[in-house]
Design a protein that fits this description.
The complex is a heterodimer of chains A (about 375) and B (about 475). Chain A is of the alpha+beta class and about 375 residues long. Chain A is built from twelve helices and 17 strands. Chain A has helices at about 15-30, 80-90, 105-110, 120, 160, 195-205, 230-245, 255-265, 285-290, 315-330, 340-345, 350-365, and strands at about 5-10, 30-35, 50-55, 60-65, 70-75, 90-95, 130-135, 140-145, 170-175, 180, 185-190, 215-220, 220-230, 270-275, 295-300, 305-310, 330-335. In chain A, the strands form four sheets. In chain A, strands 11-13-12-15-16-14-17 form a seven-stranded antiparallel beta sheet, with helices on both faces. Chain B has 17 helices and 20 strands. The two termini of chain B are about 35 Å apart. Chain B is of the alpha+beta class and about 475 residues long. Helices cover about 35% and strands about 20% of the residues of chain B. Classes of the chains: A alpha+beta (about 375), B alpha+beta (about 475). Chains A and B meet through strand 8, strand 10, helix 6, helix 7 and strand 14 of A and strand 9, helix 7, strand 11, helix 8 and helix 16 of B.
Chain lengths: ~375, ~475
């Protein structure tokens, strides 16, 4: 957490009405409002004015869960651990695995918008959000989407809300699409001498005629995860091994769990965290720049073309070099966390047009600019 | 009657795209006066067919400079009137922008122009072992630009998701002709709001996508198709719930009711359904060969447990197409038994299907109409098709009342008024069933972010401000 202004107050509304009231008070008193979920992953706040942290912690609890419909609606402050447990009791799960997912709140995850490695097999988090209830900066309650998988009744405001990090409104409730747990969840492991050689194998995995649910390089190994019926997974493993000409090992469950946790969380808790992305085929060109910056830890999502790197210390020049390296390859970079404001602003800039549209959208949702602490 | 465009405007457009690509002759404009929803017809003032992003940009700049409305149009297969022209407007069609610009088999991406026909993209990528997943029923004619505008679905979206899941980047032409690039597959780490996701499904109200980057998937190695016969729709509905509830992930689950089966069997498309069948389910699994038979066995068991009288299984591509025939030819067959067909579209939570279908049958009786159901049961996406004769004013009025009744029903069980066809002009009148005035006002605000002057596809998606409403007061306060 890297606020440059002190938190004046922590408020914990327990209802939609109380959220509306807090936002009204903030507008009246000229306060900024920073929505906070679990507090595990708080975006940057900047500025000299006073602001309050609005915790969604008490907007908690599963509201509707209809297993046969594969949909679950819960308050934004509901811990993901609770959501996952409810789903697991019905052999279902939510197919996204960003860092520390179980320690975070449902609303916070949606506000952050990160998908994690399961993106490869299941698509982005935004595709799993079927409905949202949000309170806009000017205190209007919007019910977006619903409880059905297909819904095109009006513009898709769920998409810009997902990943808006509190800059458009306070998410108070989320309806998620659930998926049946696969009969078999298998992790294939290939240890390698270096990342460059593993990237070479990963390219083969990425072009094999089957789609894994995730493919990640971390801790000196390529991890390929398969979901499906037992016989399907057996066959997919053989297909991949034939395609890349290598044999993977299959660790036992505890060891696989530890590896997957590392793939999910690696580098995310470092003092300075950057995310870089390029098209996956350009990863071998990006990697030397990452290695040169000597991160304390790195994790490469080889199907998404995404790299998360953590540093104990990183100066502005080094951060800029990484951003430039990604951009030279047609990619982008963002600084996920840094206590140094110079480093924090070293990520890719949106184009003028994107910035203009983003600014106008923020004005539409938050005309008084109450949600400024969340803005970047 | 639409006014002709001023001479200098026509000449300006001709200078940009060539005289042969500016249509102003009344007879030729007739082809553009409606889309797939033929109940609405308005002739545009002109139709312009640009070939490149630059031409679209110049056309938009010229028309918006003259404050002339633009209605974007793909193949015109939409079923909600989204491409219905306006009397004061010019249609900008993407028919000439039909090139696949690049296919990247390693990153599994393709970049195409908006006029590329959906099925043609899969044909182009098939040699690389790849395909484009969303498959609207009109995929042999509809274009990807139209799919982006409508966020189109299709039978196989049950497993694979709709258009928005596959669009990774867009080049769009916005108000005044400004060309903007949004997103991009290599830019996942970029900060900022999801403008690509917002643009997909904007129904031509934000601008025109002139280059579309999409994600491709590896072609499934195998496919198993089942056709289950049932005495009643209710039994078929229970089979659907059982299949999904068992943890199976079919690629598609489609339902066909008795009225549709009768229409198909009476037509040249006869698919060989047994006499007296009350409902049929088409169930498909795809993916790795190993495991498919197991999945099909389990689904078959679910069907029999729910009371299926017969389950057929395809063992060849030919047999597979035969099992799909009744589903795919349903609309064509119905077209032969009534002069007009209103293809409705709504979504309900899957578990509510049996009661909703029973109530739709009652509505058909109450309004003395034939309503045939053929739809994507797996994701609760209904298509109640109302057969009618547009020259019968009394019947037309009953069609409208029954439609509203069905929409209200779907919303009342937690569903919505459109799952994949979009709002267009047809569903505008139902938007108040799913959105209150505060939400409608937010949709208007978001629209004006992209279209401050109201020149993109006006009179679509959002109903006009109700007089005396808070939104009207707000609008007046802003303009004052």
């Amino acid at each position: 957490m890297t606020a440059t202004a002190p938190v004046g107050e922590l408020v914990r509304p327990a209802s939609v009405e109380e959220v509306v009231a807090e936002l009204a008070r903030a507008r009246r008193e000229g306060l900024g409002v920073l929505p906070v979920g679990s507090g595990r992953h708080v975006g940057r706040a900047a500025g000299r004015q006073r602001w309050i942290a609005l915790s969604t912690e008490r907007l908690s609890g599963i509201e509707i869960y209809e297993p046969a419909d594969l949909t679950l609606t819960a308050g934004a402050g509901t811990p993901m651990r609770e959501v996952s447990a409810a789903l697991a009791a019905n052999d279902q799960f939510a197919p996204f695995d960003p860092p520390f997912v179980l320690e975070r709140s449902l609303g916070g995850l949606v506000a952050d918008g990160a998908s994690g490695p399961l993106w490869t097999g299941y698509g982005e988090l935004r595709n799993h959000v079927l409905g949202l209830t949000v309170v806009t900066g000017d205190g209007r309650v919007l019910r977006l989407g619903g409880r059905v998988v297909k819904n095109v009744a009006g513009f898709d405001l769920i998409k810009p809300m997902t990943g808006s990090r509190g800059s458009l409104g306070v998410i108070v409730s989320v309806c998620l699409r659930a998926f049946p747990l696969p009969a078999e969840d298998r992790l294939l492991v290939l240890e390698g001498a270096d990342v460059a050689s593993l990237l070479d194998v990963a390219r083969g995995v990425g072009t094999a005629p089957v789609l894994p649910v995730s493919s990640v390089i971390v801790g000196g190994a390529l991890l390929v995860r398969l979901h499906g019926a037992g016989s399907t997974v057996d066959s997919d493993q053989r297909t991949i091994e034939r395609h890349v000409g290598r044999t993977f090992t299959v660790p036992d469950a505890p060891s696989a769990g530890a590896r997957l946790a590392r793939a999910r969380d690696a580098a995310a808790a470092a003092d300075t965290v950057l995310e870089l992305s390029v098209r996956p085929s350009r990863l071998p060109d990006l990697w030397p720049s990452v290695a040169e910056a000597t991160p304390s830890e790195a994790v490469v999502d080889t199907y998404a073309g995404r790299v998360r790197v953590g540093f104990e210390t990183l100066d502005r020049a080094a951060a800029s070099r990484l951003t430039e390296a990604a951009e030279r390859l047609g990619g982008a970079a963002s600084v996920v966390r840094s206590s140094d404001p110079d480093v924090a602003s070293a990520g890719s800039r949106p184009s003028d047009a994107e910035e203009l549209l983003t600014g106008r959208l923020r004005d539409a949702f938050d005309p008084d600019g109450v949600l400024w602490p969340a803005r970047r | 009657m639409s006014r002709p465009l001023p001479g200098p405007t026509v000449r300006g457009l001709e200078a940009i795209v060539g005289p042969e690509h500016v249509i102003t002759h009344r007879d030729r404009l007739l082809a553009y006066e409606s889309d797939g929803l033929t109940a609405y017809r308005v002739a545009p003032r002109a139709v312009v067919l640009p070939a490149t992003t630059e031409e679209v940009s110049k056309v938009v700049e010229l028309l918006h400079g003259a404050r002339i409305e633009i209605v974007p149009r793909g193949a015109g297969t939409g079923l909600s009137g989204g491409a219905l022209p306006t009397e004061d407007g010019v249609v900008v069609g993407t028919a000439r922008m039909n090139r696949v610009l690049s296919i990247d088999p390693v990153d599994r991406l393709a970049t195409i122009q908006p006029g590329v026909v959906n099925a043609r993209l899969t044909e182009a990528t098939r040699p690389h072992g790849l395909y484009y997943a969303p498959d609207p029923s009109s995929q042999s004619t509809c274009t990807l630009g139209g799919n982006v505008a409508e966020n189109s679905g299709g039978p196989h979206c049950l497993k694979y998701g709709v258009t928005s899941r596959y669009v990774t980047g867009l080049t769009v032409v916005l108000t005044g002709g400004r060309v903007v690039r949004l997103g991009g597959a290599g830019r996942l780490a970029a900060d900022g709001l999801d403008l690509v996701g917002l643009f997909v499904g904007s129904e031509g109200c934000f601008g025109i996508a002139t280059e579309i980057e999409v994600r491709l998937l590896p072609l499934p190695a195998g496919v198993r198709t089942l056709l289950g016969m049932f005495d009643t729709m209710e039994a078929a509905g229970h089979a659907v719930t059982a299949i999904i509830g068992s943890g199976l992930m079919p690629a598609a689950v489609e339902i066909i009711d008795k009225a549709t089966i009768d229409a198909v069997e009476a037509s040249v498309f006869a698919a060989g359904y047994p006499k007296g069948v009350g409902a049929a389910l088409v169930i498909e699994f795809d993916g790795t060969e190993a495991g498919l038979d197991e999945d099909a066995d389990r689904a078959e068991a679910c069907c029999f447990e729910a009371g299926a009288t017969e389950v057929r299984r395809a063992t060849s591509e030919e047999e597979r197409l035969a099992l799909w025939r009744g589903r795919k030819k349903a609309f064509g067959a119905m077209g032969r038994i009534a002069p007009d067909l209103l293809v409705q579209d709504a979504t309900v939570p899957r578990t509510r299907l049996p009661e909703v279908l029973a109530r739709i049958a009652e509505i058909a009786v109450e309004y003395d109409l034939t309503i045939a159901n053929v739809f994507h049961a797996g994701d609760g996406n209904l298509h109640p098709n109302i057969l009618f004769d547009r020259d019968d004013a009394d019947q037309l009025e009953r069609v409208e009342r029954a439609s509203r009744e069905i929409m209200k029903l779907c919303v009342s069980v937690g569903g919505t008024i459109t799952g994949e066809h979009g709002v267009g002009v047809d569903k505008r009148g139902y938007m108040d069933l799913v959105h209150n005035e505060v939400e409608l006002d937010m949709l208007r605000r978001v629209r004006s972010v992209f279209d401050p002057d109201g020149l993109w596809n006006p009179d679509k998606v959002i109903p006009p401000v109700a007089s005396g409403s808070p939104a009207e007061a707000a609008a007046e306060a802003v303009s004052a």
